Backbone:
């Protein structure tokens, strides 16, 4: 089933040296990789960062390159679909300058608006990719350990969220069964909206029931007493520094390339 | 640690009545106690109180005294282990080892002490799994033992079990019972268990306390209590261990009842004309229902099967087929979990599908019900069932299923769609009447062998009301007509979920674990309903683990292990 396929591909992604890096460091690396995307608006820096991060990610585990590339491609579908849509509005309504190609009412497609569009589309892809290459294969439990022990976020919230994540998968099963039940009850021919209205309430009931059982179970196991110990110590070390260094290097190279080629554009110039 | 209750009581903040009151007892350390009582007697309230999770003054009012070793249980959170009914929702983390360690971490046990404790605990409940084994891949019995391991690792001295085996199959039930027996063997831990199938625990406990909302009504050893109170306990819905039963038989005798009753207990009576209910099927008349195929166990138009009731004399081994499958592959999504299933469901009889957890029973039932598409092979229904000759139920519209194949889901919560019990039963009838108003002609003749469709089921607003009222009456739900289905008790929900299907009077009814986790009273009413339907000619398919149900109702048995 799909879950088996997913766990298989995650298995492949997990056998890399990235696993020596604490998940929170990987999240930090994602932040570094995406930071310049918020302050610049040109396509060169964004696409350079994307290309470099994909190449480095694949190089981490050359043996499974084919399957890893496929996993990455499948996960990237949402961004690849969203990117042109985000770019389109820029192309149509962006601040016009340079050669004008087309006008119709408020729509002005110009040389500048097209370059903005390319930059925005590249940014959407770059944002998504940065998160994918750093976070694919991270175990939620390890991430929670890192957030609570390394970043010192309140353990109450971190563990509560972690337990809830596990329940969400169960709710997916409930949702599936409830949809079949709607069909059995003679409601399957109705429109989607009508069906979802009754489904949403039933799902809420099921979420509350499961959630309150879980909360009671956690409470009886001493959760919420305040201080606690950690069975899995979450540590940071040399690999984490290297990881952040590589991320900074990628970003630096991308920005430098944009400056050298003259494509660099600071976001302040546009606003 | 000694547990002492003195005139103890609790009232939930949102309720006027006390959940439990005037309760006094002393339970010595190492004692093993079975708590019994009718539903609503406050058993779960007492267990929650002992586990320290009943909440504070904001959540309810407490009176009297309840202490564990002289301390209020709330101060001892983590010292008592609570195991509840739903195994899946009690697991916190995704890896087996982490989940056991969770409680130890909360109790501030030093990290280097935790892992040895985890390994010991897993071993003592018989879970021989690596620490990083995924908790979603565990069976119900394994999940409950994992919960127990978590409690042992924390060093819990009091085990409080709230119907721990109600949702488990026989294998899981025995696993959990044996694991509990093992961990209480040294008498270092106190055990308090609530379970209405008490034969599971009767041999393990040394004391039985019978609860009522106004205190304990009996307290003594199993050999004192069971013989003395077997009648009262049975009336509370408790399953008395066989050796203490006076009659020694099932609470309801579902065997040979082949007479067609004039008063139809399934919901409606034919004279009212509100809804065609008695699709009477005469088993003696051979009916052309199935075109012979190359399938080897189809002989002519009938299916050969073992008639376990032996009712029909010499030719009893042959029956018309209602549904058959050939080379069927089943599963959710695209990957099959079982392939090559070729079975025949005899018409007008009760078939049971049995097999261990995860063997695909439910998936098979949902595929037969036309709710899941066959991944390979075919599901074919008898010609008289098929609308316009479309014999594959998966291709039917939702409303076409209503009068043909009805499905009762394992969890009633999953199938409720309306805000009152009355509307819930009316949902299917209303869906049918919508279809009728759209249909061009509504005067087609009713043929006795064909399925009543929207055209033949009367479903005007008045007749809907009449049908619903009748069902409410017959399933003892009338006083709840205006209640929200989600607020009903377990047994009431079960009866309601069956009523919703009966309203449209389908020819085939598929029930997924109809008696799971039900007390004795609901069990008996389910068996009675199903037996009556079967005797009126409805084809019944039940997915079940319940041995008593199988004994009462299996005319034909499909074992997933033997397919």
Residues:
């Amino acid at each position: 089933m799909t879950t088996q396929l997913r766990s298989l591909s995650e298995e492949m992604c997990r056998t890399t040296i990235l696993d020596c890096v604490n998940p929170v460091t990987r999240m930090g690396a994602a932040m570094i990789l995406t930071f310049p995307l918020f302050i610049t608006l040109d396509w060169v820096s964004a696409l350079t960062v994307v290309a470099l991060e994909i190449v480095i990610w694949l190089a981490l585990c050359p043996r499974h390159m084919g399957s890893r590339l496929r996993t990455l491609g499948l996960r990237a579908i949402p961004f690849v679909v969203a990117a042109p849509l985000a770019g389109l509005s820029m192309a149509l309504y962006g601040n016009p300058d340079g050669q004008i190609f087309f006008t119709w009412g408020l729509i002005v497609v110009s040389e500048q608006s097209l370059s903005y569009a390319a930059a925005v589309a590249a940014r959407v892809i770059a944002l998504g990719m940065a998160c994918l290459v750093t976070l694919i294969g991270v175990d939620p439990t390890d991430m929670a350990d890192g957030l609570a022990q390394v970043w010192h976020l309140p353990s109450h919230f971190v563990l509560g969220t972690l337990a809830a994540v596990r329940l969400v998968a169960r709710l997916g099963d409930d949702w599936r069964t409830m949809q079949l039940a709607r069909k059995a009850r003679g409601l399957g021919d109705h429109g989607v909206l009508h069906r979802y209205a009754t489904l949403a309430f039933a799902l809420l009931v099921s979420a509350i029931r499961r959630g309150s059982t879980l909360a009671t179970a956690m409470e009886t196991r001493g959760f919420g007493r305040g201080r606690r110990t950690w069975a899995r110590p979450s540590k940071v070390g040399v690999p984490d520094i290297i990881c952040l260094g590589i991320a900074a290097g990628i970003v630096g190279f991308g920005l430098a390339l944009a400056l050298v080629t003259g494509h660099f554009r600071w976001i302040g110039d546009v606003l | 640690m000694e547990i002492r209750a003195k005139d103890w009581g609790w009232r939930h903040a949102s309720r006027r009545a006390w959940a439990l009151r005037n309760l006094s007892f002393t339970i010595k350390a190492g004692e093993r106690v079975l708590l019994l009582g009718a539903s609503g007697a406050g058993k779960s309230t007492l267990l929650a109180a002992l586990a320290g999770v009943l909440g504070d003054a904001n959540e309810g009012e407490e009176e009297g005294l309840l202490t564990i070793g002289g301390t209020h249980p709330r101060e001892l959170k983590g010292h008592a282990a609570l195991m509840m009914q739903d195994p899946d929702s009690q697991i916190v983390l995704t890896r087996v080892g982490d989940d056991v360690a969770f409680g130890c971490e909360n109790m501030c046990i030093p990290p280097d002490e935790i892992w040895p404790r985890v390994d010991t605990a897993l071993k003592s409940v018989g879970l021989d799994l690596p620490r990083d084994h995924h908790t979603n891949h565990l069976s119900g019995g394994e999940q409950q033992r994992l919960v127990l391991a978590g409690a042992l690792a924390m060093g819990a001295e009091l085990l409080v079990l709230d119907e721990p085996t109600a949702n488990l199959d026989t294998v899981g039930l025995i696993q959990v019972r044996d694991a509990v027996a093992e961990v209480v063997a040294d008498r270092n831990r106190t055990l308090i268990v609530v379970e209405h199938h008490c034969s599971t625990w009767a041999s393990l406990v040394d004391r039985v306390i019978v609860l009522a909302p106004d205190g304990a009504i009996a307290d003594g050893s199993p050999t004192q209590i069971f013989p003395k109170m077997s009648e009262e306990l049975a009336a509370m819905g408790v399953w008395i261990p066989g050796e203490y039963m006076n009659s020694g038989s099932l609470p309801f005798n579902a065997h040979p009842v082949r007479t067609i009753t004039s008063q139809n207990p399934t919901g409606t009576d034919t004279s009212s004309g509100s809804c065609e209910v008695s699709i009477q099927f005469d088993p003696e008349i051979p009916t052309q229902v199935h075109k012979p195929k190359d399938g080897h166990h189809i002989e002519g138009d009938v299916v050969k099967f073992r008639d376990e009731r032996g009712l029909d004399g010499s030719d009893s081994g042959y029956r018309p087929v209602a549904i058959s499958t050939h080379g069927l592959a089943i599963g959710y999504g695209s990957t099959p979990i079982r392939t090559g299933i070729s079975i025949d469901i005899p018409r007008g009889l009760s078939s049971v599908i049995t097999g261990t957890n995860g063997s695909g029973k439910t998936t098979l039932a949902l595929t037969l019900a036309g709710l899941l598409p066959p991944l390979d092979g075919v599901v074919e229904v008898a010609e008289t069932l098929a609308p316009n000759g479309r014999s594959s139920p998966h291709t039917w519209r939702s409303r076409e299923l209503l009068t043909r194949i009805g499905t009762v889901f394992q969890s009633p919560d999953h199938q409720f769609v309306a805000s009152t019990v009355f509307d819930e039963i009316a949902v299917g009838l209303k869906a049918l009447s919508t279809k009728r108003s759209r249909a061009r002609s509504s005067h087609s003749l009713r043929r006795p062998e064909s399925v009543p469709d929207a055209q033949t089921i009367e479903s005007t607003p008045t007749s809907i009301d009449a049908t619903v009222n009748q069902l409410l009456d017959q399933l003892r739900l009338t006083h709840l007509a205006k209640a929200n289905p989600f607020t009903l008790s377990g047994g009431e929900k079960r009866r309601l979920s069956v009523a919703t299907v009966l309203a449209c009077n389908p020819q085939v009814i598929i029930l997924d674990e109809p008696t799971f986790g039900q007390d004795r009273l609901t069990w008996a009413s389910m068996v009675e309903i199903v037996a009556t339907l079967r005797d009126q000619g409805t084809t019944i398919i039940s997915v079940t683990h319940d041995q008593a149900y199988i004994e009462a109702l299996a005319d034909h048995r499909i074992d997933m292990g033997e397919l």
